[in-house]
Structures are given as structure tokens and as C-alpha cells.
Design a protein that fits this description.
The protein has helices at 64-69, 126-129, 161-166, 184-194, 204-209; strands at 8-17, 22-27, 40-43, 46-53, 57-62, 80-85, 104-114, 117-123, 137-140, 143-150, 154-159, 177-182. It has 215 residues and is an alpha+beta fold.
Length: 215
């Protein structure tokens, strides 16, 4: 489990490419302070397992499912990546519930600056939009962000200066790919609704009429 609060930017030091998988070696510092084999580290929002480490980097494998469903396959040697260790039980919860299980990818299709904020418009598969709501949470490349606008193909996020400077999303522009993880609470709610019995009074219509869902 993660929070979507990025701890540091790492740098891809080595990529071992296979037909539909990768082994990444990432140079970093902070996340290595208490690392162990088998630990989970989110790399651009993708939960990966540490299989080797030194005092200056760690390595992790990207299996075919992750290769095909995330943007990790577009990384190059020297690419910057967002890094976050799994949440400690005694730590502050600064973002929202993030599993590190990416739902899909999006493409940045627009960007504008307004005062000290940068707005980015991201196009996604329409099937993901049902899990999004105005002022709801979204994870973009592992960063916990707030949705400020939704259309039938896109959603818009706003980046504060700290996020622009300290995360990968601030570096990316039009046409670039980002990893998307929707709010898991919305996905659990949908799953529960799919398996409700006729005697249960809670329905999608009931939730919407009482303000729990966007109409």
C-alpha cells in the first residue's frame, strides 16, 4: 500500500530488455535507507519488488502483464522516475489509498499555466472515467492528485510548484504517456454493486440520488 506522496526522483541506470519484460536498475538514495530484498517500491506508480540492491541503486523485474499495461516499457536509460516505499504502519497518511496496481495509461494532450499552478489535461480510455469524479483523487505516475475537470475523454489535474519540481509529471509534456491508477474505493463500490442481491436496498441509483456519485 502506498500514499501517492513521492519520496524522491530516481534515475534509470540500466534496462535489460526482453520480448515482453524488463529488469530495471534504478539509482536513488532515500528509498535505500532501509531497503531489503522483497520490499515493494512504487516506480512511476507501479508496485515493483526489489530483487537486488547496492548502496546506490536497486533492481526490480517487470513481468509481461505490467510491461503491457503500464508506461514502464517506454523508459530509457537516464529516465527520471517517481519513487515511493510502501507505507509504514506508523507513518502519516498524506495522500490517498494507492495500491500500485495501475489501471491503464493516459496521454497528456493539453497544458496551461494559471498563476503558480500548471494544469495538465490527460486523455484516457473512457472505461476509466467512470471511476473519476470532480475533486476526487487520482494517481498519475504514482503521484496523488486531485481532479478538477472531467470530459467524455479527458480529466484535468493541477500541479503545485512542489509537485512540478519534485515529480516526473512536472517534467512531462504533450504526447507523453503516464500511468493511471483510479481511486480503489470507487472500484470496490462498483464490484459490490455488481454482486448485490435483490433484497439489498443499496443501488447505484440510490447512491447517485443521495449525492455519493456524480450524475
Amino acid at each position: 500500500m502506498f500514499t501517492g506522496i513521492i519520496e524522491e526522483l530516481g534515475t534509470v541506470r540500466e534496462i535489460r530488455n526482453h520480448a515482453s519484460s524488463l529488469r530495471l536498475t534504478i539509482s536513488c538514495k532515500k528509498v535505500l535507507s532501509d531497503v531489503n530484498i522483497g520490499d515493494s517500491i512504487a516506480v512511476n506508480g507501479v508496485c515493483l519488488t526489489v530483487n537486488a540492491y547496492t548502496s546506490a541503486d536497486f533492481s526490480a523485474d517487470v513481468i509481461p502483464e505490467t510491461f503491457h499495461s503500464t508506461g514502464l516499457r517506454y523508459l530509457d536509460k537516464g529516465s527520471s522516475v517517481n519513487l515511493e516505499r510502501a507505507m509504514a504502519a506508523n507513518g502519516r497518511f498524506g495522500g490517498h489509498f494507492v495500491s500500485g496496481h495501475v489501471d491503464g495509461t493516459g496521454t497528456i494532450v493539453g497544458e496551461k499555466r494559471l498563476s503558480n499552478a500548471i494544469y495538465k489535461v490527460i486523455e484516457v480510455d473512457p472505461s476509466l472515467l467512470k471511476y473519476m469524479m470532480y475533486k476526487g483523487s487520482i494517481t498519475v505516475d504514482g503521484t496523488s492528485l486531485t481532479i478538477f475537470e472531467i470530459t467524455d475523454r479527458t480529466f484535468t489535474i493541477s500541479l503545485i510548484p512542489t509537485t512540478v519540481n519534485d515529480s516526473v509529471i512536472g517534467m512531462k509534456g504533450r504526447g507523453e504517456t503516464v500511468n493511471i491508477e483510479c481511486d480503489m474505493l470507487a472500484k470496490y463500490m462498483e464490484r459490490l454493486m455488481e454482486h448485490k442481491t435483490p433484497k439489498q436496498g443499496l443501488t447505484m441509483e440510490t447512491l447517485a440520488s443521495n449525492g455519493f456519485l456524480d450524475s
